[in-house]
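[READ THE FOLD]
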Amino acid sequence: MSVAAPIQLRVRGAIADLSPSDRARLLDRSTTSDDAIRTATAAIVDDVRRRGDAALRELAERFDRVSLESLEVPVPQRRRALADLAPALRESLERAASNIASVHGAARPTPITATPEPGITIVRRPDPLARVGVYAPGGRATYPSSVLMGAVPARVAGVGEIVLCSPPDASGSPSSLLLAASEIAKVDRVFAVGGAGAIAAMAFGTTSVPRVDRIVGPGNAYVAEAKLQVSGYVSIDSPAGPSELCVIADASTEPRAVALELLAQAEHDPSACVIAIVVGDAIASAIANALAEELTAQPRRDIISAALASNGALVTADSLADAVAFANEYAAEHLALLVARPDDALPQLRCAGTIFVGESSSVSFGDYMTGANHVLPTGGLARSYSGLSTLDFVRWTTIQRVTPAAAASLADDVARFADAEGLPGHATAARRAGSTSTLATR
């Protein structure tokens, strides 16, 4: 078989030989936007905060080229969209929703009770949030999967009300496919509002769009920046950037499998980040050839080529341990572990949004159907953030009970602490509470 023209990658070489600048290019994938995006987003957020619905309508005319009579999509329209959905596609969406509910239901938090000493009882109770906002992107493509990934875990967690915002298309509402997904996910209210304006509306509330307690979901650079700017007023999931994939492969891996996984994630966006860390020079060359061959058949090859040239890398490691160490430093959103002995590496892989083990565990399955969440940390934030789960839709209430006898035991130690910190009122309150056991016996 003839080899296609060499593919253009941002970085190629051995990990040990990477220049400081190449290493920095791979590792520094900060989601911080440039000054122009920050300034434009701040203006939109401020405008929506001040003028509410009027600002949202003007934004729809400016960016979406539509005039909206109502920002909210009527429930009958959403139901018609579901009824009109092709039966096979509806079955696929319902299967995905069922799997998401199953996985996230298994991870639903339960109350925790601790008794550090006799007479002291501490309870940590998970309370579902009252209202959550889910953002689903529009623009380049429609993402019903993002609706399911945001709304189904919220419903499983017991959230009181789920609000969905997504940009309108030429019809003046989000796509019918997205509306059908909102019905499957049991979303309560849907608004034809997109971009930074949607984030501001959910953060501060308008006449039409209710204020929420948490905002989740992916979006473009303006959406990501808006989430950061409102995070002092409302909780957000995590700062999100372009899609990422890191593949760890060795000589046991079919080169075409690696190439197809890299191409699949690179087709998301010209800014997508894809990297293969390969143990062995021969398999690295075979992967490069497979990438070049497969790229020619990709309908979105222009987007893929741009992503590979700007953020793609094929690097070699001397050992699996070295590959794992670099993958932890890279901290990818998705990590595919395609090696002969994956269980040897899994315990050491601690910094990835989600890990796919073996060639049959395609990342695409996780994007849509396995039930695990595809809303994941990017830009190296997998070192400290986790993927979306039911934990994101509850807040923990701590309840403390101290018996009179335990209070008497604690009082002197607490008073000494308080006196040492120069807080005599705390000391007095502790001593008084400690005297209740004596008072109770009178």
The chain has a mean pLDDT of 94.
